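User: Hi! I have a protein structure encoded as tokens and I'd like to know what sequence might fold into it. I'm fairly new to this, so please keep things simple.
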């Protein structure tokens, strides 16, 4: 069995162990030979996630909301709407928050984290020899499905923002820019938990994902990937481009399930916050909230 998932929490200045929703099921599916057979046959297939997503849209799913809030210690005072106002679990899952609960870093040269979650930074993807497990590295061409973009980011930086079921599940733009049309790249729906990624990093470019680019006058072309996962009914875009967007503006939200936002920057265009660099270099994800300072435009 792989070790516990440990991450750095700057709010408590301590390393913490992640409470994994459905951990026993995940470990059976990805770390057990018998479980892997069922995984291939059912879980990665779209029909399973569609079916499970629909269960979370049924009125009876509302009964799961309060126990979930209690078990995972969610802060109701951050919610824009009262828990009793949600008609289904999915409505609660992609809930909006009060703006005051996620203040946006306002520095003119500052970039922000695009989502709540556990974040891992690859400062130079060309120098990454392993990620999540030894011997696993990134395949940019397969991830992006575009030779031009893969070449642009050959020495670029990748921010992997992993959203757990307990997190706020709306995602936003990290900086101002000109947004392209968002394109779908179809694929499977494996879990994006480290339990799964330790076995197979190629999940990132095998899974269903949405790709867009955001052009900033000083940074250049930034790519954002919205990566679906097991039990994510769908990705909902509230702005699918093309358009001009502002830092912190909402891009969309995920239905039920763990999911991932990947943000890719051209080489040496962003000076990332030192705490993120330090923890990532040691193999630890760092928990930050949407709106927190990610870094600044490099001089």
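Assistant: Happy to help. Inverse folding works backwards from shape to sequence: for each of the 299 positions I chose a residue that suits the local structure. Here it is:
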């Amino acid at each position: 069995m792989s070790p516990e998932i440990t991450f750095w929490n700057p709010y408590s200045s301590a390393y913490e162990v992640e409470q994994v929703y459905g951990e026993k099921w995940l470990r059976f599916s990805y770390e057990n030979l018998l479980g892997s057979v069922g995984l291939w046959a059912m879980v990665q297939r779209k029909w399973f996630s569609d079916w499970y997503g629909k269960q979370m849209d049924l009125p009876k799913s509302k009964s799961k909301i309060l126990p979930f809030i209690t078990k995972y210690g969610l802060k109701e005072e951050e919610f824009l709407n009262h828990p009793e106002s949600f008609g289904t679990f999915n409505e609660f899952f992609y809930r909006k928050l009060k703006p005051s609960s996620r203040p946006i870093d306002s520095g003119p040269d500052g970039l922000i984290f695009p989502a709540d979650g556990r974040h891992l930074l690859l400062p130079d993807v060309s120098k990454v020899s392993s990620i999540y497990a030894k011997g696993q590295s990134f395949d940019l061409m397969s991830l992006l499905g575009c030779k031009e973009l893969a070449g642009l980011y050959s020495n670029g930086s990748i921010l992997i923002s992993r959203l757990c079921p307990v997190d706020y599940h709306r995602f936003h733009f990290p900086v101002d820019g000109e947004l392209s049309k968002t394109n779908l790249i179809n694929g499977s729906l494996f879990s994006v938990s480290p339990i799964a990624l330790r076995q197979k990093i190629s999940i990132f470019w095998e899974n269903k994902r949405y790709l867009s680019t955001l052009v900033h006058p000083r940074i250049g072309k930034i790519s954002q990937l919205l990566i679906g996962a097991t039990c994510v009914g769908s990705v909902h875009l509230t702005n699918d481009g093309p358009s001009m967007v502002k830092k912190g503006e909402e891009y969309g939200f995920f239905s039920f399930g763990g999911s991932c936002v990947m943000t890719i920057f051209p080489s040496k265009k962003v000076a990332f916050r030192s705490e993120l660099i330090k923890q990532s270099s040691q193999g630890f994800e760092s928990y930050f909230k949407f709106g927190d300072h990610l870094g600044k435009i490099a001089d």
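A useful reference point when you look it over: The chain has ten helices and 17 strands. Feel free to ask if any position seems puzzling.
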